[in-house]
Specification:
141 residues, Core-binding (CB) domain-containing protein, Integrase_recombinase_N, Integrase_SAM-like_N, 50% helix, DNA-binding, DNA polymerase, domain 1
């Protein structure tokens, strides 16, 4: 299996022997291959920035571990599963921007899989991230 960090963006991704990153686990190999194909597509065909690729890799990696913890397969997650994941992100205090970027990464990933014929429907359809409303700093008119 080719890994995204063995090519163009090698300087940004942790390698198997990096001291801060353990050996990449052999969980959900179909997901791992699909993620690499998606990131190569973004790098080669869409010319996405290296920082975007790194962020998407991390976002998809986080989704993988969330799914693993719950005994789910990333390629078979449902709309409700992803909504639960995003709700957890909000409860953990992730910023609105981070949650939006993660949803954008997931939309792109699942749309790519649909085009490739790997999945039959996109589980991100209809998911939105609402901005938190804040009254801090606002005065009554």
């Amino acid at each position: 299996m080719l890994l995204i960090y063995d090519r163009v963006v090698a300087r940004y991704y942790p390698t198997d022997d990096a001291p801060f990153r353990g050996r990449l686990p052999d969980v959900q190999p179909d997901f791992a291959a699909a993620r690499e194909d998606f990131l190569y597509h973004l790098a080669d065909d869409k010319h996405r920035a290296d920082d975007t690729l790194r962020a998407y890799w991390t976002d998809l990696d986080d989704l993988l571990w969330w799914a693993e913890k719950r005994g789910k397969v990333v390629l078979r997650l449902t709309h409700d599963d992803l909504r639960s994941y995003l709700t957890l992100q909000r409860r953990r205090g992730y910023s609105h921007g981070t949650i939006r970027r993660r949803l954008t990464a997931f939309r792109g990933f699942y749309s790519f899989l649909l085009r490739e014929g790997t999945i039959a429907e996109v589980p991100t359809a209809g998911l939105i991230v609402r901005a938190r409303t804040s009254t801090r700093g606002k005065r009554d008119a």
